[in-house]
Write a structure and sequence with these properties.
The complex is a heterodimer of chains A (about 725) and B (about 290). By secondary structure, chain A is α/β, with parallel strands linked by helices. In chain A, about 35% of the residues lie in helices and about 15% in strands. In chain A, the strands form five sheets. In chain A, strands 7-8-14-13-12-15-16-17 form an eight-stranded mixed β-sheet, with helices on both faces. Chain A has a three-stranded antiparallel β-sheet with strand order 9-11-10. Chain A has a two-stranded antiparallel sheet with strand order 1-4. Chain A contains 20 helices and 17 strands. The longest helix of chain B has 17 residues. By secondary structure, chain B is an alpha/beta fold. Chain B starts with a strand and ends with a helix. Classes of the chains: A alpha/beta (about 725), B alpha/beta (about 290). Chains A and B meet through helix 3, helix 13, strand 10, helix 14 and strand 11 of A and helix 4, strand 4, helix 9 and helix 12 of B.
């Protein structure tokens, strides 16, 4: 795109100085970073403009034109060190954002072609008299009036900036001083007039006026009248009632003055200070619009006109169009569209929705079965085969050996990791949709649960009703001449729920088994019809049902406000028990957490003991009054080296006894365990494994979602 | 429960209700057609539900209407309709509304609750922030709010027929609806709903100027500030500042507190405890006020 290189811009911005490799000034005061202020500034901008926008740093601080602003993205230098005081540098950002917000508050984009300008006679033709494209914004129509459209856009923006800065300074009295300081600095950084060609010099005086310059510019006599006329044309923009239409009219006049000025350097008279107060002779403005043909002056082809941008102001970019892609765009708009399309690849610095959830959690506190449980090099481990953890996310636990009747020290290694988030929370949302018929019922149950927490309290000083016993006692006391108690009322008082629950879900390979579709005749309450496509499949597996249950649980428990964690487990031997976190107890349910469910997949074996022990460790850290561990499994515990050394037939007994021991440990720690299995043969071993512990066998796995929620209510409501 | 319907107002009830009259005309600027709507509802005795954010003038509107209806009815001499206001909260029970037995001397004494007093004596009964009350509490108004216009007092086994001038008005703030804090549909559908919102900037400026006694530029700035902070509410604040808060800030300014400081104590601190958010709002305050 020829014509809009801005040689002055790079220089101007270099002075603003964000390049730490050069310039001593930067070393003296590091200035204000955008990153450090983006949070506050984002709120500030949203309050002023009522719009959401991401504040992003320029890719290159020296080139403000590479990414013009859009309606949703604002580009600012990543560091501001123009002023010696930190507050002033912050103020610079604030002024830049106030200016940008003013475009929306002050109505730049509300321009109406047909609306009269309060301070100018109308040069614009009637809208009916000009051809319009479909889906063309009024600003686009306006800019099509000009043969040199890019120049017109620049001039319009200078007028509009001038109007809005004056408007903003009136509106934000508290910011006026800061605003004026920033304007003075911008004025100070302007390129010297003497170095500019006449046309650029005229445009430059316009920018300077817009920044509040009052000095009479020193220019060749050729420019004296145009500068006077320019000043007169721009003056009304500072009026209180000036509108965007005024800016448009002023821009038309400025455009006429600028294009009539030659663009070649030559001798145009001795530079002298212009007597601003002397009025220029009147000039007849052109009456024919759109401009019939390009006014052609010598030098137009060779030398592009250039207006150095003002650093704190924004570029119009593509915002004057309607974005629909319909209708023709001029070359500049096309250029800017492509330029801004590239912005998506720039790394987001502080997205409003990013970064919050993935803050690394602090390392877990060392606890009794911890990885620093060494005996020293000179001591033999008292039992061969002990494991030691050298990683933060690995934990060593003992295992119960029922044959020996003793714990095996440091026997199992639990490796904890977070499940990677899938691409989106679609799985979560789809599941909720599929179970839409069940969700209201769950909601009702859960809400009942939260209201159930009421308890009748007797013998109170205030209450709804008389406590009959206490009232009779009081009367008896009074008759007997004793002083009666005043606590004679009963009330229903609320008992706050205080529940923390960890769900431990079996992810062994057997959960990949297909599930018989629900028999609709047998159980009408089942939410999913036979053959219904969910997550792109008609068949479902055990793990599908487990995952769907988790979704329903999460959405229900969020409403209830209980603390809950969801963990999956599987493994390949005692050295590698995998403990996978879907949601930590203290984690919020965010889209990222919801997206993890997509990646829950069947893995290997089912070594329950260490998984239970690790879940207990997490629950122990909770302060809730009621603590619950819910184990959801599809079969008995089994692993490759889970008691096999006592003979092939011993493994069942060994694994069950260890699991049983782990569940007992839970009870001792004040955590109520509950085992839910979808293995129809579960009764055989669960009787041993869960003697005295609550458990339930579901003979139809399809009931899992609805049943678990009912169970949850029973378990925590009592 | 007996079949007897107690026909009141009794003399005592009429006297008791006198205490609830608004003495002076409250200042109220209508923001829409709420006044004629309320008057129509009053003539038909249809209960009214006022919906709107905190501090947008719901309570003031009810006070104003009680005054206005009273003057239409009685002329200058008797003043406003009685207005019984009950602020609902989580621990409000049906007993608190209807009445209870208290221990006295050698026996018990029945004390009417505020709702019963209003039902007997007539006038407006205003349940402020009705969603805050437990759902089982609110059920007592059901028979009052349909054609029956009866209040059952279970503990006494009485049914009280409402005074012909009795009208129930409730308010509710849809802004912070949580799952549990929502009106039951069976309750909701007994009311005519009038929606309130923050007044437009120019109107709000007049209200602030009048209520806080500040000069027009200050009122203007406060109204602007209010509008801008409300831009934040969807994502950051549960609710934006109500007109009431802006008036408080204005009054602090009238009392000689520096404007920025006044806004800080009246508005910023009331909006949030989050330091970043407070800082953001403070930036807006500092832009608006020198």
């Amino acid at each position: 795109m020829r014509g809009y290189v801005t040689p002055g811009a790079r220089e101007a911005l270099r002075k603003l100085g964000a390049d730490s490799t050069r310039g001593d000034a930067d070393h003296r005061h590091p200035g204000q970073t955008l990153e450090g202020a983006a949070g506050v500034l984002g709120l500030y901008y949203r309050a002023l403009s009522g719009r959401n926008a991401a504040l992003l740093p320029f890719g290159d601080n020296h080139d403000p034109q590479q990414y013009p602003d859009t309606h949703t993205t604002i580009r600012l230098p990543d560091r501001m060190a123009r002023f010696p005081r930190a507050a002033a540098n912050f103020g610079w950002y604030k002024v830049a954002l106030t200016h940008r917000a003013a475009h929306y508050e002050g109505g730049t984009f509300d321009f109406q072609f047909d609306r009269e300008a309060p301070n100018f006679s109308r040069l614009r033709p009637a809208l009916a008299a000009i051809a319009r494209y479909e889906h063309e914004s009024d600003l686009e129509t306006f800019f099509r009036l000009f043969a040199q459209r890019e120049l017109a856009i620049e001039l319009f923006m200078i007028c509009e900036d001038m109007r809005l800065d004056a408007w903003a300074k009136r509106r934000y009295a508290g910011l006026r001083q800061t605003f004026e300081r920033v304007e003075r600095a911008a004025l100070h950084d302007r390129p010297p007039l003497a170095t500019l060609r006449p046309r650029d010099a005229l445009a430059e005086t316009m920018v300077r006026s817009s920044l509040g310059a009052v000095d009479a510019p020193v220019l060749p006599s050729l420019l004296h009248d145009p500068v006077r006329r320019m000043r007169a044309a721009l003056a009304p923009l500072r009026d209180k009632g000036a509108t965007v239409e005024d800016s448009a009219e002023a821009a038309m006049r400025a455009y006429c003055l600028v294009v009539r000025t030659p663009n070649l350097a030559a001798d145009y008279g001795t530079p002298a200070a212009i007597a601003i107060e002397v009025p220029a002779p009147p000039l007849a403005w052109p009456a024919i619009w759109p401009e019939p043909e390009r006014t052609h002056l010598e030098g137009d082809e060779v030398l592009a006109s250039s207006i150095a941008p003002v650093a704190y102001r924004d570029r119009l970019g593509s915002r004057y169009t309607f974005y629909r892609g319909a209708g023709p765009l001029d070359s500049q708009a096309i250029y800017r569209f492509t330029a801004s399309a590239g912005t998506t690849s720039a790394p987001p610095m502080r997205g409003s929705d990013a970064g919050e959830d993935e803050r690394p959690l602090p390392p877990p506190e060392p606890m009794e079965h911890d990885h620093h449980d060494h005996f020293g090099a000179d001591l033999e481990p008292h039992q061969a085969g002990e494991l030691h953890s050298h990683e933060v996310s690995s934990f060593v636990y003992p295992e119960w050996d029922h044959v020996k009747g003793a714990y095996r020290r440091n026997w199992c290694m639990v490796r904890e990791s977070r499940i990677d988030s899938g691409s989106s929370a679609r799985y979560f949302d789809e599941t909720l949709q599929a179970y839409a018929t069940l969700v209201p019922e769950i909601r009702r149950q859960i809400e009942r649960l939260s209201r159930d927490g009421l308890r009748k309290v007797r013998r109170l000083a205030h209450g709804d009703d008389l406590d009959l016993d206490a009232a009779i006692e009081a009367l008896v006391d009074r008759r007997a001449g004793l002083s009666p108690s005043e606590d004679v009322y009963v009330a229903r008082q609320k008992v706050a729920r205080d529940v923390a629950v960890a769900f431990l879900v079996d992810m062994s390979f057997s959960t990949a088994e297909h599930v018989e579709p629900p028999d609709a005749r047998r159980n009408e309450a089942l939410p999913l019809r036979t053959g219904r496509v969910i997550h792109g499949r008609t068949y479902r597996t055990i793990i599908d049902l487990e995952k769907e249950t988790m979704v329903l649980l999460m959405s229900a428990l969020e409403r209830l406000g209980d603390t809950y964690g969801i963990y999956c487990f599987s493994g390949t031997g005692r050295g590698d028990v995998r403990f996978l976190v879907v949601k930590e107890l203290d984690e919020r349910l965010s889209d990222r957490v919801a997206a993890r469910l997509e990646n829950v997949k069947p893995l290997n074996t089912t070594r329950m003991g260490p998984a239970i022990r690790h879940a207990l460790r997490k629950l122990r850290g909770q302060e809730a009054r009621t603590k619950l561990l819910v184990l959801i499994s599809d079969g008995r515990p089994f692993d490759l080296d889970y008691g096999q050394e006592y003979g092939d037939n011993a493994e069942v007994e060994y694994a069950i006894r260890d699991t049983r021991e782990a569940l007992d440990e839970a009870r001792q720690a004040g955590i109520a365990p509950f085992v839910l299995t979808v293995d129809a043969q579960g009764n055989d071993y669960l009787r041993t494994m869960c003697e005295g512990i609550d458990y339930e066998v579901l003979d139809d796995v399809n009931q899992l979602p609805s049943r678990l929620l009912t169970l949850y209510r029973t378990l925590t409501g009592g | 429960m007996t079949d007897a319907v107690t026909m009141l107002p009794s003399h005592a009830a009429t006297q008791a209700i006198e205490a609830y009259r608004v003495a002076e005309e409250p200042f109220y600027l209508p923001i829409g057609d709420e006044i004629p709507l309320f008057e129509a509802a009053w003539r038909e005795r249809i209960p009214v539900l006022l919906k709107g954010p905190t501090g947008c003038g719901k309570t003031r509107f009810v006070e104003y209407m009680s005054w206005r209806l009273g003057h239409e009815r009685h002329g200058e001499d008797r003043g406003a309709m009685p207005l019984v206001t009950i602020s609902c909260h989580e621990d409000l029970t049906a007993t608190d509304l209807v009445g209870r037995y208290l221990l006295s001397g050698n026996g018990t004494e029945w004390i009417d609750g505020p709702l019963t007093r209003a039902v007997k004596g007539g006038g407006l009964c205003y349940l402020d922030e009705v969603v805050e009350a437990r759902k089982d509490t609110i059920v007592v108004i059901h028979s009052l709010t349909d054609h029956r216009r009866l209040l059952p007092i279970e503990k006494k086994g009485e049914l009280i027929r409402a005074h012909p001038d009795f009208l129930l008005v409730v308010s509710y703030n849809p802004g912070y609806q949580s799952t549990i804090k929502d009106l039951k549909h069976s309750t909701r559908q007994r009311f005519l709903s009038i929606e309130f919102d923050y007044p437009a900037q120019t109107l709000e400026q007049r209200i602030i100027a009048r209520e806080a006694g500040v000069a027009s530029p200050t009122a203007d700035a406060l109204a602007l500030l209010g509008m801008q902070i409300r831009h934040l509410d969807a994502q950051n604040l549960l609710e934006g500042p109500g007109t009431r808060l802006l008036i408080y800030a204005g009054r602090m300014i009238t009392q000689g507190v520096a404007p920025r400081r006044a806004c800080d104590v009246a508005i910023v601190q009331a909006m949030t405890d989050d330091p970043l958010l407070a800082k953001g709002i403070r930036q807006v305050v500092e832009a608006v006020f020198p």
